[in-house]
C-alpha cells in the first residue's frame, strides 16, 4: 500500500488544479496491480499567494501537515507540479540539515511534473504591474516572497541546486527523484503581451532545462600558477536523475496540461516511476527515459496553424540554460562588468552561431547574476532539418559547430587602488563541455581581486602628511 501526496504549484487556490490525474492514476494503478486506495491519496492545499509567506514558511507547514497524517510505516511518495517540486526538495534539505527540528518521515519517490527547479522566466513578470493587476482581479496577492525564490538566478534556488549538484546521490540511499516535463507550450494559451508563454524549449511556463536536475556547476577561475588574466574551467556534474519529456504536453490547461489534462503519457510515466524499487531498476528507467527523449528530439518539427495563412514552423531544438554569476575571489559582485561569449581560434564573439542566444535575463535582486537561454543544437552543430511532409524541402540548412567556445570578461574597473583586470579562458578549455542538452549549468566567473599596496602604508615621518591622493604602487600578491 502506498501513501501518495500531491503538491500543487504557485498561486493555486483550488484543488481543481489536480484535474482528473489522481483518479486516472488510481484506476491505471489498479489495472497494473499497484494499490492506491482513496484514503491513501492526499491533495495539498498550501498558500503561496500571500506576500508574507516565504518558502521556509511553506516547508515548515508541509512538515507539520505530514506529521498529522500519522503514517503507519512513516513513509510516503509524492507527486508535485511546478513550484511544488522545489517546495518538497527544500523540505528534504531541511530534513538533512536540521534533523531535530523536522520529521523523520521518509520520502521514497519524488515525481515532479514540470518542476520550476531552477525557476521560471515568468517569475519577474509575476511581480510586475501586470502580475499584480491580475492577482488583484483574482482577489489574491501575487505571492511576492515565493516569486523571489522562483526568479531565475535567485540566491535561494541556486543554493538548493548547488547542494544537489555537489551532494550525495539520493538513489544510493533508496530515495528516487524523477522529473517529467512537457516539451512545448499550449499555443491556445499564448499571451500576446508576454512572449515567454509561447517560448520554444519550454512548456509555456518552465523551460525544459530549468526543470531538469541533471545539472552542472562550472567555475571559471584563475589557477594558482596562472596569470591574473587567464581563467581555467572546472566542471562538476550532478548525480543522475530520471528525466522524461512528455511529448505534446504543456505546463497547464485542461487540453494539454501535464497534470490538469492527465494525458496517458503522464499517467504511464508516473506508474513506471512507482515501480522502481532499487538502484538497478532506477538506472534502467533512466536509460529508458533517455532513449525516449532521443526519439522525441529526432521528431522536432511542429507546425502551428495560423488561420488562413501558412502555418508557423517551430523547430524544437534542445536548449541549455546558463546561469552566470560574476564575482571576484572575495565574493564581491562585479557590477557593470561584461562577459562575452566567443567562438573559434583565436576567440571571436562575431563567430558565435547565428541565433544561438535566445534570451537573457538579469536577476532583479542580484543584477550580477544573468541567465542565458541558449540553443544547444546550434552550438553543437546540427544536420539539415527537412520538412516532415516533403523531405525535399529544407526548413533549416545544416549548421556547423564553431567550437571551441570561450568566455572573456571586461570588468568595469580596470584601474584604482582595488580593481580587476581583463580576463579570458585558457585556450585548452571549451565552454561547450559545461553545457548539456535540456540541462542547466551554473557558471561562476571568479576574477582575481587586485589590491595595491597603496591601500595601507606605514611611515616614520612624524610631521603631518596628506595621503588623500595615494599612489597605488604594486599589486599585493594573493595570500
Describe the structure.
The protein is α/β, with parallel strands linked by helices and 479 residues long. It has two domains: 4-215 and 239-310, 3-Layer(aba) Sandwich (Rossmann fold); 317-449. Helices cover 23% and strands 24% of the residues. The strands form five sheets. It has a nine-stranded mixed beta sheet with strand order 12-17-19-7-6-20-11-14-13. A six-stranded parallel beta sheet has the order 2-1-3-4-5-8, sandwiched between helices. It is globular and about 90 Å long. The chain starts with a strand and ends in a 28-residue tail after the last strand.
Blueprint of the fold:
Blueprint: E1 4-7, H1 21-31, E2 41-43, H2 55-67, E3 75-81, H3 84-97, E4 106-113, H4 123-126, H5 129-138, H6 144-150, H7 155-166, E5 176-182, H8 208-211, E6 216-221, E7 230-237, E8 242-246, H9 264-274, H10 279-298, E9 301-306, E10 309-315, E11 319-328, E12 338-343, E13 357-362, E14 369-375, H11 376-380, E15 385-386, E16 394-396, E17 405-410, E18 418-419, E19 423-425, E20 439-447, E21 450-451
Parallel strand pairs: 1-2, 1-3, 3-4, 4-5, 5-8, 6-20, 7-19, 11-20
Antiparallel strand pairs: 6-7, 9-10, 11-14, 12-17, 13-14, 15-16, 17-19, 18-21
Amino acid at each position: 500500500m502506498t501513501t501518495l501526496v500531491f503538491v500543487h504549484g504557485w498561486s493555486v487556490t483550488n484543488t481543481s488544479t489536480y484535474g482528473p490525474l489522481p483518479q486516472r492514476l488510481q484506476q491505471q494503478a489498479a489495472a497494473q496491480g499497484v494499490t492506491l486506495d482513496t484514503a491513501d491519496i492526499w491533495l495539498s492545499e498550501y498558500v503561496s499567494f500571500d506576500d508574507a509567506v516565504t518558502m521556509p514558511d511553506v516547508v515548515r507547514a508541509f512538515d507539520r501537515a505530514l506529521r498529522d497524517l500519522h503514517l503507519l510505516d512513516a513513509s510516503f511518495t509524492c507527486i508535485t507540479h511546478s513550484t511544488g517540486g522545489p517546495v518538497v526538495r527544500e523540505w528534504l534539505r531541511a530534513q538533512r540539515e536540521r534533523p531535530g527540528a523536522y520529521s523523520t518521515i521518509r520520502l521514497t519517490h519524488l515525481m515532479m511534473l514540470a518542476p520550476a527547479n531552477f525557476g521560471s522566466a515568468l517569475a519577474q513578470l509575476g511581480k510586475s504591474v501586470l502580475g499584480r493587476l491580475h492577482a488583484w482581479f483574482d482577489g489574491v496577492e501575487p505571492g511576492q516572497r515565493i516569486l523571489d525564490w522562483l526568479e531565475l538566478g535567485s540566491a535561494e534556488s541556486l543554493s538548493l541546486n548547488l547542494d544537489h549538484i555537489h551532494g550525495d546521490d539520493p538513489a544510493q540511499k533508496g530515495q528516487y527523484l524523477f522529473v517529467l516535463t512537457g516539451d512545448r507550450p499550449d499555443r491556445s494559451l499564448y499571451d500576446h503581451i508576454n512572449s515567454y508563454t509561447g517560448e520554444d524549449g519550454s512548456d509555456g511556463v518552465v523551460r525544459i532545462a530549468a526543470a531538469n536536475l541533471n545539472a552542472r556547476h562550472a567555475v571559471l577561475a584563475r589557477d594558482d600558477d596562472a596569470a591574473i588574466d587567464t581563467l581555467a574551467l572546472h566542471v562538476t556534474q550532478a548525480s543522475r536523475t530520471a528525466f522524461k519529456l512528455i511529448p505534446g504536453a504543456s505546463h497547464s490547461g485542461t487540453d494539454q496540461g501535464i497534470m490538469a489534462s492527465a494525458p496517458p503519457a503522464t499517467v504511464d510515466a508516473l506508474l513506471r516511476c512507482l515501480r522502481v524499487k532499487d538502484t538497478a531498476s532506477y538506472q534502467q528507467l533512466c536509460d529508458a527515459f533517455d532513449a525516449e527523449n532521443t526519439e522525441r528530439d529526432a521528431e522536432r518539427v511542429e507546425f502551428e496553424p495560423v488561420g488562413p495563412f501558412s502555418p508557423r514552423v517551430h523547430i524544437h531544438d534542445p536548449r541549455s540554460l546558463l546561469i552566470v554569476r560574476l564575482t571576484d575571489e572575495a565574493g564581491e559582485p562585479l557590477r557593470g562588468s561584461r562577459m562575452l561569449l566567443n567562438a573559434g581560434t583565436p576567440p571571436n564573439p562575431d563567430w558565435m552561431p547565428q541565433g544561438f542566444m535566445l534570451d537573457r535575463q538579469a536577476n532583479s535582486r542580484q543584477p550580477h547574476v544573468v541567465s542565458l537561454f541558449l540553443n544547444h543544437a546550434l552550438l553543437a552543430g546540427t544536420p539539415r532539418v527537412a520538412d516532415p511532409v516533403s523531405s525535399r524541402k529544407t526548413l533549416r540548412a545544416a549548421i556547423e559547430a564553431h567550437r571551441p567556445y570561450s568566455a572573456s570578461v571586461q570588468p568595469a574597473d580596470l584601474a584604482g587602488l582595488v580593481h580587476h583586470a581583463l580576463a579570458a579562458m585558457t585556450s585548452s578549455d571549451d565552454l561547450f563541455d559545461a553545457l548539456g542538452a535540456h540541462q542547466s549549468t551554473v557558471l561562476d566567473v571568479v576574477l582575481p581581486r587586485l589590491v595595491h599596496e597603496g591601500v595601507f602604508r606605514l611611515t616614520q615621518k612624524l610631521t603631518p602628511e596628506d595621503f588623500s591622493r595615494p599612489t597605488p604602487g604594486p599589486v599585493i600578491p594573493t595570500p
